[in-house]
């Protein structure tokens, strides 16, 4: 994922996440958001849905991000505990959450 993700890119994101949740054989689906320059709450809702689908399939979903706007968006929606911050994909695989800001 790169650039801006909002309601206009929602259908592409839905297809990508849902297909990946169903096909992955790994314990975790790691979603690297670091290339994003913008994300709205539409994306957050889809990430929540993808997380539910992953859990139903016996997997988990972890987000990699370092942008303050994503941290603020998650905080505004009360989703920081649902989506803890990982600063690299390697940290996400290992379960090493980033320190709280």
From TrEMBL:
This is STAS domain-containing protein. PROSITE patterns: STAS (PS50801). Residues 1-96 form the STAS domain. InterPro entries: MlaB-like_STAS, STAS_dom, STAS_dom_sf. Gene3D superfamilies: STAS domain. SUPFAM superfamilies: SpoIIaa-like. It comes from the Bacteria. It holds the Pfam family STAS_2.
């Amino acid at each position: 994922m790169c650039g801006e993700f909002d309601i206009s890119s929602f259908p592409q994101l839905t297809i990508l996440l849902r297909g990946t949740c169903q096909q992955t054989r790994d314990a975790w689906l790691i979603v690297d958001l670091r290339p994003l320059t913008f994300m709205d709450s539409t994306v957050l809702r889809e990430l929540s849905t993808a997380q539910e689908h992953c859990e139903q399939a016996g997997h988990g979903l972890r987000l990699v991000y370092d942008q303050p706007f994503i941290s603020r968006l998650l905080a505004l929606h009360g989703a920081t505990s649902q989506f803890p911050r990982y600063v690299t994909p390697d940290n996400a695989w290992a379960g090493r959450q980033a320190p709280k800001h």
